[in-house]
Amino acid sequence: MTADELVARITGTVDYLRVTVGPGGDGWFTCEPLVSEPDRLATVVAATKVGRGTDRDDVAMSLFVQGYAFRVASLAIGGWVLGDAVLDVSPATTAIAIGRDRPNGVRLDAARTSPAGDVIGHLHETLIDAHLARLVTTAHEACRVGAPLLWGNVAASCASSFGAFAGELPRRAIEIRDRAESFFAAGRPELAAAGRIVRVGERRWAWERKSCCLWYLTDSGFLCEDCSLQTDDDRRARYAAAVAEESGP
């Protein structure tokens, strides 16, 4: 499978992932300035505040990082899940689009994969070390938002990326869960500290994060299912319902 075929397979599997390969036009933001220039990132994020229902810089930054991380992670993780390869998501050759005041698309200058070998090591190098870790550092410098919270967003977004493919490929659900566990086990300490995978029944799993993304402080007042503010009773009830659904009548 070529790198272009792999991208097509990713978007064909999870159809709401918007990925473009080739030259970009208006509306695309090259990732390199966003992960290296705090003022540039702050300017882009400021334009999303009203649409996200907040007047707070930290809330808008948190939600932006979470959406950005999910879009980029889904492409890189999808390459591993569907092709046992790591797509190059280097910031200098990757761009994002914003729609409805949130990151909603990814563009690659060209589809390329990393050399064969330690695939999970390459995945962490290209996705986390060279890209999302830099985004966390720059976001933390751009406004008063905690690095552990931002790492929580990155980890939750990676977990959601695995979940997106598991949801579309139920016959591979256990294998994808195992891949997710391997991914986090091999990750940086910041990822390990951000949350954990909890097995739910025979085939399902959930991510439990240790920080809140602050979505509840927007006009929606929304709590994510994996939020650290959810009570243990809420989690147990949700897991029990999932097990009952899996078992059937």
Top keywords for this entry?
globular; two-stranded antiparallel ribbon; 4-stranded mixed sheet; 249 residues; Transferase(Phosphotransferase), domain 1; alpha+beta; 10 helices
Architecture overview:
By secondary structure, this protein is of the alpha+beta class. The protein has one domain (3-196): Transferase(Phosphotransferase), domain 1 (Orthogonal Bundle). It has helices spanning 3-13, 31-36, 38-46, 49-52, 57-83, 119-142, 147-168, 173-185, 189-192, 232-247; strands at 19-21, 28-30, 94-99, 102-108, 195-200, 204-209. Strand 5 and strand 6 (204-209) form a beta hairpin. The termini are far apart. The mean pLDDT is 95.
What is the structure about, briefly put?
By secondary structure, this protein is α+β, with helices and mostly antiparallel strands. The chain has helices spanning 3-13, 31-36, 38-46, 49-52, 57-83, 119-142, 147-168, 173-185, 189-192, 232-247, and strands spanning 19-21, 28-30, 94-99, 102-108, 195-200, 204-209. The protein is globular.
